[in-house]
Amino acid sequence: MAILDREGLFDEDINRRSVPALKVHPRVLGTDGEKRFAAGVADMDYKAPPAVLAALQKRLDHGVFGYEAVPDGLFPALIRWLSVRHGWSVDQNHILRAPNVLNALAIAASVFTDEGDGILVQPPVFFDFFDILRENHRKLISNPLKLEDGRYRMDFADLERKVSEPRTKMIYLCNPHNPVGRVWTEAELRTLGDMCKRHNVLVVADEIHGDLSFANHKYVPFASLGPDHAGNSITCLSPAKSFNIASCCSAFTIISDEARRRAFQSENSRLTVNKNNAFASAAMEAAYRDGGPWLDDLLVYLKTNVDLVRRYIADVADVQLIEPDGTFLLWLDFRALGFTPEELTVFLRDKANWAVMRGQAFGPQGAGFARLNIACPQAKLVTALGDLKKAVSTRK
Ligand SMILES: Cc1ncc(COP(=O)(O)O)c(C=O)c1O
User: Fold this and answer.
1) Residue from 101, 242, 329 whose mutation best tests the ligand 1 pocket (most atoms within 8 A of CB)
2) Own/partner pairs for 196-200, CB < 8 Å, 24+ apart?
3) What are 339-387's pLDDT values in tens digits?
4) Where do the structural domains in the chain lie, given as residue ranges?
5) What's the pTM value of the predicted model, to 2 decimals?
6) Ligand 1 atom with the shortest distance to the CA of 42
7) Under CATH, which number does the domain 64-290 receive?
């Protein structure tokens, strides 16, 4: 792994309040939250890679921002990235664009299922999945993950039952999984994929966290399992998380089945979502073309942050770290503290001064847990961990 000599790149304490960053916005932190440790919203406190900043600057310097086509280099940069980094060979004709990943998930639901159909999810899971299902009047089919010996696994017996129900038409697979940090193995994906294929359930793979897997945990793109699985799936991804450009990028949908791709494209056209944003394209192309070494450094830094949390938490009675395979989101188990979910939320906010995502937002299975975003400078994380330790040791 190439480690760039850029000491301190992720240590800079950047004032995110000088722009309307959601993570520190009063809408998220509350009006009394200015001093709170902002670790809820899933973005990073780091500047985008230098290559991305340079590309944006260059595009800005051009000064004309009329209608534009997609730059010639964007899809090849993505294709090369997926091939070199993840061993997945993608045909350029199979790539469609989307404004963002959630939009792609919602379009998939509306094109390939009908109102009242079931879409399966695996809670505790990213809360926006629930909102999409509700707002599109789809039925939530829940296949909760099992926590065994501190590690989350899929419950395949339950999955087989649920995908064999005629109303189940689609699954939102979160690979890697937000919030439990599992990078699903090839064997797990194959078992899931085989079941879905057997029962005619379309796999919609949200792989937005795919680039953020730690050493020894290989992210396997679901569609890379082979033509059968590729043919029964839609992959939604973007560089938003990997390069911290969520407000300055768009997303991609990769669909190898021609009929489905046409149907998806026709919905994109109906909704006129295909306009090109010059800055998003410039940022994405640069990220995929030149962002690799920066991402390698980032993963090392994030892993050090995980190690920090593990070390601190080891001394904090009744709090457990769920060991992540990847992502910058940690899932912490506070159940042994004996609080109700509401009491835990208040305790973390008022006693530890933490603004994290409450576990129950990820489904009832998340009660007693919280999601901690560790993509911040190490000094901030150390202070926050000290605050937690103090709060837990002095709780009544
Ligand atoms: C699993 C997952 N999917 C999608 C998103 C959001 O993606 P986008 O901003 O492209 O809609 C997030 C953001 O936290 C996420 O964690």
Assistant:
1) 101
2) 196/163, 196/171, 196/232, 197/228, 197/229, 197/232, 198/163, 199/163, 199/164, 199/168
3) 999 999 999 999 999 999 999 999 999 999 999 999 999 999 999 999 9
4) 16-50+292-393, 64-290
5) 0.96
6) 14
7) 3.40.640.10
